[in-house]
Structure formats: C-alpha cells, structure tokens
Amino acid sequence: MMYFPRHKMLAVILGGLLIFSACKKDSDSGPAVEPLSVAAVKPDDILTIKGQNFDANASGNIVKFGDVIALVVSATETEIKVKVPGTSATGTIYTLTVTAHGKTTEVGVIAIVPLTFYAVKGTFASGAEYKVITINPGDGSESLIASVGERINDVVYLAATNEIVGVNDAGTKLVKVNVTTKKVSSVALPSGATAASNYLVVDKDNNLYCIKYDYTVTNHQTQSLVKIDPVTGNATVIKTFESTDDWYEPVYVAATNEVIGLKNEGKSLFKLNLTTKDTLTVNLPGSATTEYRELIVDDESNLFAYKAHLHGDPTDVAKLVKVNAATGEEKLVKDLPVNGKFHDKIIYVSKLSEFLGIWDQLVVFRLNMWSLTYDFSPNPPTLDNTYTNLTSN
C-alpha cells in the first residue's frame, strides 16, 4: 500500500476537484455569441452565427427565430451556419436564440424578409420629389417605401442595417431608407468644393465603400476607395491613386476580394484588391467603339458586362458578355435589343437565375440565364416619372 503524507493527500484531492470543476464548467457553460452582422435575412439564406461554446455537432445546437426552429447546416465550437426558415416566417422581426449544452443564449433581433426588388422613382425636373419603391418584376406593380426628396443615385441594399442606401446628386451625403421602419435619414460624406463621393459598393461582410473624387487640379484628379461608416458617414481610406480617367461603376467580387470598376471610358477594368491594396488595369478587347457601360457579378463571382454602342444609326449594337477579370477576354452571352438601353444598375438574381435591370427608365428587363430568353415587364405607364437604380435585398 502506497503511503501519502497528509498534506500531499490533500493536494491530490483538491487537484482532482479542480479538474472536475473545470470540466463541469466547460460542459455546462452556455454559448457566448458575437453581435449579428446583419439586421435582415431572406428565407433560405445561410446565416452565420459566431461565438464560443457551441456544440461541434450540428444536431447539438438548436437555433430559433422566435418559436420557429431553423435547420443547423453545420457547426463548430465557434461558428454555426443555419438556414433561415421559409416564407411562412417572413414579415416579422424575430428574437434569435441559440441553445447548446442545455443552455440558451439570446443572439439578438433579426427580420426575415422575402426577396424584394427596390427602385428609385422620380423625374429630372428641378425640385422633383423622388421615392424609394418596391417593384414587382413580374407585372411592374409597385408600392411606396418612402419619399426621399432629392434624387439619389448608386443605390445599394445594406443587410447590416436593413436599409436602401444611395448618394445624393451632389455626392455630398448618404441617404438611407430603412425598409422595415420606413425611416429616412442622411449623413454627410467626405466632400468639398472640388471633391465628391459616388458609386457605392458592398462587400461580403456588409462593409460599405464608395469612390471619392478630388478635382483640385484641372484635367487631373485624385481618386480614393474609401470605407464608409453608414451611421456617421466617416470614411477610412483604403487606397488613393492619381488618374486622368474616372473610375466608375464598381462591383465587388468575393472570390478575389476585389472592387472592380471601369476606366478609360469603358475600355479597361481597374481592380483594387481589398486584402493587398494592390491595383491593376486590364484592357478590354474590341471596345474601341463599343464601350462597356456596366458590370454585373453573379453569386459565384463570375463577372459580366453590358456592352453597347448606341447612337441611333445602323451601327447600333448591345450585348451581354461574360468577362474574364484576369485577362479581359470576353464571351458573348446574348445580343440585346438596340431600341433602348439599361439605366443605372443591372443585377443578377440567383434565385431566379435572371439578370434584371431598368430598361429606358420605364420597364423591367429580364434575361433568363438558362434559356437566354428575355422579356419586358411594364411598369405603370406614367410619362412624367422615370425608374432607376434597381437593386434587391
């Protein structure tokens, strides 16, 4: 029989109790969660919840939107991916909870909203009233979200705040419309007598960016990609460069973490990598007379462009092309009508496998990616109103 001095025996017992207590604490502690990065999601979206003390087995976690149990797709001890419940749960703000190891933690509140298309409606008349509306691409019917007063451009949907966000004509402020509360607000953007901000773009983490132009020197400009705080309007410069050409119509490509826009009057791509801050110009072939007017990205980071030469003569041409962002090489997707043109943003909607845009500021154009057929959905006929800036949540 092994003999332990009394004080050593006590140490062994205490050590064992501490180990048992630590193990019990780890297994019994509830999940600790980080704040949600989005304010709204759509049915069937995959929502990522980050934190600690989750069950590494997906089945060991229960995620609820209110009383609705959601499907946990995957889980680790620090991250849960959950499929947002279907349409029966839409239209409401829910309290999101996570249960793991028998303990429940409240994550926060979140809205489940159906796939919705938004546009700006107004006229070019001085002092005209502009509105943010929802628009049904099937029949062109619409409903009012809110009146915003002055014209806004470069509209995007920001899931982080569940807002439609645009820039005023002067490029001096950010105008925001909460699509749930209908509240309209604005914040000043970095600008000045010779400077303005335009072209909003959102990355995969719901960060908001814009391009700032400074025209202090005639025929020469300083351009910057800046990250914008949508609450305060404060800007953080990502990269500044000198150029004689505008950088415009940017899109975000998640696969390479790049912001890609057009330069040289639509004859080249200009790319800025958000990770390395490197910039690169890629020439676009065959665009001397038929310029690239707009870029589109699908949900798999494929890059497309609307390419057109529209002057009302027999040389008119319009195309949707797929573009290799590394080489500039293009492949024709579809020849488009030349008796009209796209205005302010074409979007790709993965759920519909369709490209959508506002055509001639009066109707919705839809091109199905699989059948390569297109049609036009008429908006209510109003000659004194135009439609621009189609976007979706």
UniProtKB/TrEMBL annotation:
Protein name, as recorded: IPT/TIG domain-containing protein
Signal peptide per UniProt: 1-24
Keywords: Signal
Alphabetized InterPro entries for the sequence: Ig-like_fold, Ig_E-set, IPT_dom
Pfam assignment, any one: TIG
Domain IPT/TIG: from-to ranges: 44-102
Top-level taxon in the UniProt lineage: Bacteria
Native source species: Niastella soli
